[in-house]
Amino acid sequence: MAIKREEIQEMVSKEYDLDNLTIGVLGSHSALDICKGAKDEGFKTLVVCKKGREKPYTIYFKTRERGDEVVGCVNLPLVLNDWREMIDEDNLKILRSHNTIVVPHRSLEVYLKFYPIENSLQVPIFGNRALLRAEERTEPDMIEKNQDYLVKLANIPTPKRFDSPHEIDRPVIVKATKAIGERTFVREFPVVNSSEQYENICMELVERGETEEEKRAIEENFRSAPIEEYIEGEKVNLNFFYSILYEELELLGTDTRLQFPNGEELAHLPLSLRESLLGKAYDMGEKFVEVCKKEYPPGIIGPFALQCIGDESENLRVYDVSLRIPGSPDAEITPYPGYLFGSGISFGRRIAREIKDAIRFGRLNEIVT
Fold first, then answer.
1. 285 and 203: one domain?
2. What digits encode the pLDDT tens for the residues 167-177?
3. What is the C-alpha separation between 248 and 269, in angstroms, rounded?
C-alpha cells in the first residue's frame, strides 16, 4: 500500500527533532554533492552504502579530524549487504532515529526500485515521491502520465516520435533500457534507419539474455521503448530548481555529458548557454512546472532537469527529463547560481538551504512526501 503523504508529514511534525535533522542519501550518483551541501548548511549527513562500494563514504570522504581541521562530508555511513536492505524495519528505525530526510536520486530508483520507494521507504523524502516513477518510459515501470505525457502536455518542443517501427522513415533512436541484472535501468539506445534494422537489432539484444526469461524481458523492454527522431546537434542539460517556498524557478546550472563506448555516463562537463537562449530555457522550465502542479500535485519540489539537443533551427528540443536531482556536481561552477545568489551554489547546498528555510518558516511539511 502506497505511503500516504499525511503519514510522512505527521512523522516530521510529531516524531522528528527539527533542531537535529540529518540529510540522508544512498551512496551513489550525487551522494557527495548532497552531503557537502548539507554540511555547508550545518546539517549532519548519513549515507546508505553497499558493501564493496562503501570506501568513498567510510574512508575517503568520511568526516574526521586531521590536524587542526575537520575534513570530509559524511558523518554516518550505514553499510548494508544489499541496497534493498534499506527498507528493512531495523534500518528504517536507524534512519528515523537520526531524524533523516532522504534526498532521492537516480541510483535510489535503480537499486531500490519504485515499488519499495512508494510503499516501503517509510521516511520523509525531500521532493515529490509520486513524480519519481513518471521518469520511466519502458516496462515494467512505465505509467501513462510519464515524462513524455508531461512534456507533450506542456507543449515543449521535442524530437518527432514514432508510434510503430513500421513508420520509421529516417534515422531514429530506440530508447530502450536493459531489463536484466542489478542495474535494470542501464540504457541501450541504438540508432536505427529502417524497420528491418529495428528487428535485427532487437534480435541481437535478445540473444544477450542467458535464460529464456531474460530473453523475453529484453524483447518486451525493447518493443515498449519510445522511438524518437535522431537529431544531429550538441546536447545541453538545463538543471533547474523549483522552490515551493518562494514560488520561483531557478536555473542552477547547465552541463553536458561524456559517455563510455557502451553509452553509459562517464563524466560531466559544465558549460554556459548562449545568453539569448536563456529565455527559451526558462520558458520550457516554467511550462513543465505548471503541468506537474496540475498532474502530480503539489508538483515539482526542488531539482529537475530538461535534457535538450540544439537543432539546426537554433531551437532547444527536450529528449529526456530528470525528475529528481540531476547527476550534475558541476552546477556550482557554472555562472547561473552566481547571477542569482552572488556566488556558486551546488544542488546539494540548494536543497539543504530549502530545508533550512522550510524549518525556519514552519513549512517543512510542504517540501517532504
1. no
2. 999 999 998 87
3. 26
